[in-house]
Design a protein that fits this description.
The complex is a heterodimer of chains A (114) and B (115). Chain A has 114 residues and is mainly beta. Chain A contains one helix and twelve strands, in the order ββββββββββαββ. The model of chain A has no long low-confidence stretch (mean pLDDT 91). In chain B, a hairpin with a 3-residue loop joins strand 4 and strand 5. The chains are: A mainly beta (114), B mainly beta (115).
Chain lengths: 114, 115
């Protein structure tokens, strides 16, 4: 079946540090890949997505590239801010086997200190 | 559009009581999902609907949980009787159709505490 594995958290960084959150996946088809972010007390919201191999999703300074050869979709940001503190979820949708449902990773808590 | 609307935002109840959580999806969205989030188990899909019909309820933990979608603009998740281990944040999400790149839009969640 489908699965998503994220790097273990929590992650604590200083402001303006470089961020990488690793995400690898297993899927039987050709999935779309997503990063969602959850700010304290709120629901998840889409951060970025990529629908085919070699696509790069980007938003708010965050980037992730769909790497089919390594089955990865690592999230990066060159300079984090305190306001980036949140939980980040990697997810996939494999339309061939799972319809519209998303498979989520465990989530990675990011704390950015001033 | 106001987004996915859930109510109540917070619910505190005693063990054994019935709890009903409510969700209004984004207008025009064909799919509705109910999730549960806990520290121990992360984000779990409980059930999802397509055009008001339940498609997959394999994530519903036990018979105490039930979900309905009587029309395209309203869904409920009911727990009867509630237990302390049901304490969690429950999210509702909706998406337009089954397109592979479609985004799920989440509500703000209902934080349930069962004492």
């Amino acid at each position: 079946g489908n699965s998503v594995t994220q790097m273990e958290g929590p992650v604590t960084l200083s402001e303006e540090a470089f961020l990488t959150i690793n995400c690898t996946y297993t899927a039987t088809g050709y999935p779309s890949l997503f990063w969602y972010v959850q700010y304290p007390g709120e629901g998840l919201q889409l951060l970025l997505k990529a629908t085919k191999a070699d696509d790069k999703g980007s938003n708010k300074g965050f980037e992730a590239t769909y790497r089919k050869e390594t089955t990865s979709f690592h999230l990066e940001k060159g300079s984090v801010q305190v306001s980036d503190s949140a939980v980040y979820f990697c997810a996939l949708r494999d339309g061939e086997t799972s319809g519209s449902r998303l498979t989520f990773g465990e989530g990675t808590q990011l704390t950015v200190n001033p | 559009d106001a987004g996915v609307i859930q109510s109540p935002r917070h619910e505190v109840t005693e063990m054994g009581q019935e709890v009903t959580l409510r969700c209004k999806p984004i207008s025009g969205h064909d799919y509705l999902f109910w999730y549960r989030q806990t520290m121990m188990r992360g984000l779990e899909l409980l059930i999802y609907f397509n055009n008001n019909v339940p498609i997959d309820d394999s994530g519903m933990p036990e018979d105490r949980f039930s979900a309905k979608m009587p029309n395209a603009s309203f869904s409920t998740l009911k727990i009867q009787p509630s237990e302390p281990r049901d304490s969690a944040v429950y999210f509702c999400a909706s998406t337009p159709n089954s397109g592979l790149g479609n985004i799920q839009y989440f509500g703000a969640g209902t934080r349930l505490s069962v004492l």
